[in-house]
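note to self — DONT lose this again. spent like an hour looking for the file last time. sequence + predicted structure for the chain T wanted, 392 res
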Amino acid sequence: MSEADDHRPAEVPGPPPAPRAWWHPSRLLRGRVRPALATAVVGALLGVAGTAWQTGSGPFRADHKCWGALDTSDLKRYFREPDKVVAEETAVQFRDLTGYSGVCRLSTGRGAVTVNVHQLDVHYDGLGRWGSEFLAARLVPMGGGLLGMASDTRAWLALPEGCVGRPSEIDGPTVVDIDAGWTVQDSEVDKKERAGLTHMVVKLVNRIIDQEGCSGAVVDPSDRLPAADDIRAEERPDAVCGIKGLAIPARPEDDTDGSGGKKGGKQRTDWSLVQVTPDGGPVRACDHLRVGTEGLRLMTVSDPRLAALFERSSSEYGTSLKGARGSRGSLSARNGVFWARCQTGDVAFVARNTEWDSSSLLHTLFPRYIEAEAARAGCGTLKVTTGTSEGS
């Protein structure tokens, strides 16, 4: 007992123990260990850990980055000069309210890559920055039953729930994601760099699995990802996002001529690129891009673990949407979310308009998109009706 403990009133409990890092001595000494040996090992680890924590490398291998997961050969698959990569990291820890968390920053003189371990937040991550960047059509599914996707600048992979758990069905999964910086959305995907990020995120996930004492490992899918050009789609006026019979309505400003008289409406046809997620993944996103930025996204989230990220937004916007079997949603001029319980599990349909000011685009297009996608997503036939809700 310390001097501070001697003076603590009996009725005041001591502070809760700090979350333990992976390499905390008590976690490394699992099972039965002789007392003398345990004392020696703990002393050695504490002596090393005091220095290792300053460099963020942990007490294992100085040449392994990000909690001992990545060696030089792993880094070489993405970085041009892997021997010059410097890692700064915080220990991966479990906290009762936020689940697992940890950050590792890999930097060189040319830029930086950030690794983040976190539980996806159902309040912010679906329609926020994470969903915008890590569910984009530029990313392809990893396949093989993995909940993960990758491009040449982003990659993410969910930790197995059998190992780290999941609080409830309404909570998002815990993921490891890699952010390699700015993305030019309409540029060609670098297949080699995409494979490199995929390989690294798998190594990171397997490191967590191992450190948590779980059996098994994720098989690296980097050599069997869909072709880089599979995301490009040829847009047809009568088959938006490759969906036959789905058309983008005419822009309102195209309905009048310069003198205020009526003229024929025109469909939007000047998108520089349309990207569609290859089939077989947890989401199917369709991004309409112009001048390197996203103008319109239509997305079907068919994995219930990710659909949970959008359920809370289904009543957030001004116009309500209703369908059969309790399916529901809402939309505004900028966003739309429709959430349905289907035979395959919960499915979310999502729309985002960042270019058109008129509300007519999503109000016309989104209900039709839901009805057209419902059967493919395992929801059967859905007839969507609109009304008015209290959201804004």
